[in-house]
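We modelled the chain as a single entity of 190 amino acids. Its sequence is:
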Amino acid sequence: MSTDRPESPAVDGEGLRVGLIAARYNFQLVNSLLESTITTLRRAGVAEGDIETVRVPGSNEIPQVVNLLAQTGQFDVMIALGVIIRGQTEHASLIARTTAAGLQDVALREETAVINGILCVDTKEQAEARVSGEYQRGREFAHAALEMARLTSDLQMRFLDDLYGLGEEDDLLDELEDLDDSDDDGPERS
């Protein structure tokens, strides 16, 4: 994992709904990552009630739950949080590759922003430096989530605007409400 820190634009999190899916494996490390992520989201304006945390046994189980949550349509972005520490076998590499592929698959298929916050490190010391030490990856994951949630929303609105020729989000919502209201009259009977 790179030690670079990306520049994060300030993004207002008000009104965004965030799903956090966190592994229990390496609990203390993941918990530090989770706390840092939540703190950053709250400071950016995400309401406490708009953050839902789901715990799963390990990182391998994260993509399935992200997929199920994405299908609900209740979240603007989901953040997967886990810590994989390399052992003496290839198991860590296998989990890292398959979880990354699974998360990317969900993001593309469901058109939902998904942040891969699963750290893959060689040692516990490297993990500690990234969750609560020098690098604070939880903050970076939260900033990436906010940016991607807004960007995804903007691009989806642009697509709808191009498709329906509506200029503003409010116009689109009014048009959809008008369509919905016309269904309230029930079927015409002769």
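As a brief sanity check on the tokenised model: The domain at 18-151 is CATH 3.40.50.960 (Rossmann fold). The first helix runs from residue 27 to 43.
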